[in-house]
Design brief:
Elements lengths: L3 E4 L16 E4 L7 E3 L4 E5 L2 E4 L4 E6 L2 H7 L1 E3 L4 E3 L8 E6 L5 E3 L4 E9 L27
Antiparallel strand pairs: 1-5, 2-11, 3-10, 4-9, 6-8, 6-11, 7-9
């Protein structure tokens, strides 16, 4: 699949780090200087990227596992969805769940993006749903 992209950042385009990667790394675009993310603080980090996703697809913005494990940095609305009709800049809502300040520098890999097909549904309102073995069993009903 080919996706049209405008890159105002001068950073590398999102890319796959390995041959079997599902996600492409997104980089921070901080022309006004580094960002210090304090504990429990959130910040909307620009990427300088604008994309044109084909209808029937979405881009999902997800945390990078290494940032989450090593530094407590994650995405607050994870996964974030970029719809096919959105043409604005991709931005990433990072939050610092650690007890230490975290520096974000222009060009840092801050998130990953996955492009995925999706379906749209039409609702069929009914009085009863089909039976299953699970039934209405919800959170924690299968044990530990």
């Amino acid at each position: 699949m080919i996706i049209n992209v405008i890159n105002k950042s001068g950073n590398l385009l999102p890319s796959y780090e390995t041959a079997s990667s599902a996600g492409m790394d997104l980089r921070a675009y901080l022309p006004e200087g580094d960002v210090i993310l304090k504990p429990m603080e959130r910040y909307l980090i620009p990427t300088g990227l604008y994309i044109e996703i084909p209808v029937g697809y979405e881009a999902q913005v997800r945390p990078r596992s290494g940032l989450a494990l090593k530094y407590g940095i994650t995405i607050l609305n994870s996964p974030g969805t970029i719809d096919a009709d959105y043409r604005g800049e991709i931005k990433v809502l990072l939050v610092n769940f650690s007890a230490s300040d975290f520096s974000i520098i222009n060009g840092d890999r801050i998130a990953q993006m996955i492009v995925a097909r999706h379906e749209q549904v039409a609702w069929n309102e009914v009085e009863h749903l089909g039976e299953t073995a699970r039934g209405a069993g919800g959170y924690g009903h299968t044990g530990i």
